[in-house]
């Protein structure tokens, strides 16, 4: 569970950095009196990563509680990798969308 909490916190922290970096780029463009190169994508991506981090933390708590309940009943649960697979696919899609955005718009 602690590894999932760490992953969720890392996603939230990274999302905050991504969102703030877009704001920083807009501010730098305003100071230099140039048109802004960002289209708000970094803020949307950052908020999406923060929401994903919250989801990962909540899912880890749910999964941990379910595991403890099954241990208390006397059975050892088998592996259930649905959360891991879902998170991996979601992060791969987010990475692909970011790569496409960088190639097309920057």
Can you give a write-up of this model?
The chain has 106 residues and is mainly alpha-helical. It has one domain. 81% of the residues lie in helices and 0% in strands. The chain is built from 3 helices and no strands. The chain has helices at residues 2-31, 41-72, 82-105. α1 packs antiparallel against α2. The N and C termini lie far apart (39 Å). 11% of the residues are buried. The model has no long low-confidence stretch (mean pLDDT 82).
Overview in brief:
The protein has 106 residues and is an all-alpha fold.
Highlighted features:
106 residues, mainly alpha, 3 helices, 81% helix
Low-confidence stretches: none
Give, in order, the helices and strands: HHH
SS content category: mainly alpha
Give the overall form. Answer: elongated
Q: Could you say how many structural domains there are in total?
A: 1
Quote the distance from N terminus to C terminus: 39 Å
What is the number of E strands?
Answer: 0
Beta-strand percentage range: under 5%
Rounded to an integer in angstroms, the radius of gyration calculated over CA atoms is 19 Å
Number of helical segments with 4 or more residues: 3
Question: On the 0-100 scale, what is the average pLDDT?
Answer: 82
Percent range of helical residues: over 70%
Major pleated sheet = none
Q: What secondary-structure arrangement, pairings included, does this model have?
A:
Elements: H1 2-31, H2 41-72, H3 82-105
Helix pairs in contact: 1-2, 2-3
């Amino acid at each position: 569970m602690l590894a999932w909490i760490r992953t969720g916190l890392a996603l939230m922290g990274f999302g905050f950095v991504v969102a703030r970096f877009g704001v920083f780029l807009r501010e730098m463009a305003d100071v230099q009196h140039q048109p802004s190169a960002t289209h708000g994508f970094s803020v949307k991506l950052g908020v999406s990563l923060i929401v994903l981090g919250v989801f990962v933390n909540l899912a880890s708590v749910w999964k941990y509680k379910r595991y403890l309940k099954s241990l208390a009943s006397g059975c050892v649960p088998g592996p259930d990798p649905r959360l891991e697979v879902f998170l991996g696919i979601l992060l791969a899609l987010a990475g692909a969308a970011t790569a496409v955005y960088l190639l097309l718009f920057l």
